[in-house]
Amino acid sequence: MSMPLEITYDHSVELAIAKITDLLKSQYVLSKRAISLLLLQEDEDILELVKGSEIKNFSKIVQIIEETKKKNDRPLNYIISLSRQQRVDALANSAIVKVEKKESRLAESISRLTMNPITGIPILLLVLYYGLYKFVGEFGAGTIVDFLEEHIFGVYINPWVNGTAQALIPWSWLRDLLANDYGIITLGIRYAVAIILPIVGTFFIMFSIIEDSGYLPRLAMLVDRVFKKIGLNGRAVIPMTLGFGCDTMATMVSRTLETRRERIISTLLLALAIPCSAQLGVILALLSGAPGALPVWLIFIGLIFLLIGYLTSKLLPGDKPSFYMEVPPLRLPKLSNVLTKTYTRMQWYFVEIVPLFILASILIWFGNLTGLFGVAIGWMQPVMNFIGLPDKAAEAFLFGFFRRDYGAAGLYDLQQAGLLTSRQLVVAAATLTLFVPCIAQFSMMLKERGLKTALAIAGFIFPFAFIAGSAFNWILTTFKVLQ
Amino acid sequence: MINNLMPSDQLKSRQEGVVAELTTNNKNTLRKLMSMGILPGTSLKVIQTFPSYVFQVGYTQVAVDKEIASVILVNAINH
Asked: Which residues does chain A have within 8 Å of residue B68's beta carbon, measured at their own beta carbons?
């Protein structure tokens, strides 16, 4: 059984409630007292509702609200909350018996260790090393990708599809659409299932575990000071970390940030300097062959992230970010929750992304068939030489338009063929990381940030990626790093 | 035991007190503090002060930056 909790508010508030209640003539789902209280707290939805239903009396109601605001030196919202808090405290004190408990000492100690920078930063590095590098990088992008790519597709599926197409389809244009180098099955489905699925899957498993353990708010608290320098607050660590899984999903999640300024900065940084897991997996595999290449790439991308974030926060007008967050207790993630979350995210990813893979395969097929790609690759070659890469890399960059990881995977093929030096490899990987967001991410930017902002971001990134790549190449050549 | 009023960003680690007032009329800041249950009368204990402030407030822990911590006026208990 329930009964309403009667609260008597401050005298001026009660007076206003009585006056407004008299003026409310229409019928509402809530009681007139509740409507009056919401009006005094200037609830936008209720103001809109009453403006429509009390056409005659609305201006009188607004006048009462303004008078009551003038009588109090603090916002009415605050005064009303205070009275409620007092009532709730009194009620809670009469009903709750507090028992001193010792059981959560261990969780509390670990919690303190994760929040103290001296121990928290090494813990963060351990999480990144084992979670991202070992589990996603080596296991997901290495072991599983090798197995699916080389054994399942390389030995069984692709030869069978190519053979069947050769035997049954008399037209070469249709054969090429389904099979061979750029076919829907042999390229589109192969990339989606053998490269992207294991990488994104292992990333989402790791992210769900970290999310469920309650670690993210602690991470947000640790990085808040650094993030303030780039115009964001610690809370933005959530979309940023998710970006390492899928930038498209992260761009959508950035709508949870408080101000428009923070949303624009995070969208730009996600598009520019956060490689998604598919791209990251291929880049890790690509760079692990050349000693020293990975740290050089990491430092360069890290510096670009901070530099562009800092400059954007100086240029964009708007309120300074502020940070506040509840820190939930640390807990052991539940397997069933982790699996459900991973499954839901994978499902979203597949529904959103696989059609785009197939579309990209078709566009590449169409480009090749009509010779448009040959022309475009011809245009790209001087740009490749500008950042110190061979002509052949143009193909990988062109594919990068369609999918960022297509581009990275294309470089992988070049490296396998021994066509790139360590320096070229790092410059190519860095430029591709900065280079355009994939089609899916760009369409999400359009949807979330609007046409003008999305075009402005893309218009900045396109030339900037190549200028930064060229500067990077110049630095590495001049200081004889990675020759 | 002497009681004294000070903003929460000037408290030391492990210091305790009771929230006395929220010294801002910025509706956004007030809303944020209230949503985390920080209101006059609630007990507050400092867990750490760097790189952000972490407080135990009632039964929950909250992390805030210096700007927000500076508007929470606390009646501090000196041990």
From this structure: 322-324
Whether A224 contacts chain B with CB within 8 A: yes
Q: What is the ipTM of this complex?
A: 0.92
Domain boundaries, chain B: 3-77
A355 has a chain B CB within 8 A of its CB: no
CA distance A238 to A260: 17
Kindly list the distances between the CA atom of residue A254 and the CA atoms of A11, A97, A257, A264, A456, in Å, as whole numbers in the listed order: 43, 42, 6, 9, 18
CATH tag, A11-95: 1.10.287.1770
Strands B60-64 and A324-327: antiparallel
Give pLDDT tens digits for A62-92.
999 999 999 998 889 899 988 988 888 889 8
Q: What is the DSSP string of A225-242?
A: HHHHHTT--GGGHHHHHH
Q: What is the mean pLDDT of chain A?
A: 89
CA distance A215 to chain B (A): 13
Chain A partners of B22 at a C-beta cutoff of 8 Å? 78
Please, which residues bridge with residue B18 across strands?
Answer: B43, B75
d(CA A430, nearest CA chain B) in Å: 31
From the list B42, B48, B62, the residue facing A115 with the nearest CB is B48
The Cα of B64 is separated from the nearest Cα of chain A by a number of Å equal to 4
Per DSSP, what are the bridge partners of residue A460? none
Q: Determine contact: A99 vs chain B, CB below 8 A.
A: no
Residue B75 vs residues B15, B18, B57, B72: alpha-carbon distances, Å: 11, 5, 14, 10
Q: Which residues of B touch A326 (CB under 8 A)?
A: 36, 60-63
Q: Identify the H or E element spanning A155.
A: none
What digits encode the pLDDT tens for the residues A134-176? Answer: 998 889 888 998 899 889 998 999 999 999 999 998 998 899 8
**Residue among B33, B52, B61 minimizing CB distance to A323:** B52
Q: Are A227 and A237 in contact (CB under 8 A)?
A: yes
B3-77 CATH pick, 2.30.30.90, 3.30.230.10, 3.40.190.10, 3.40.50.2000:
2.30.30.90
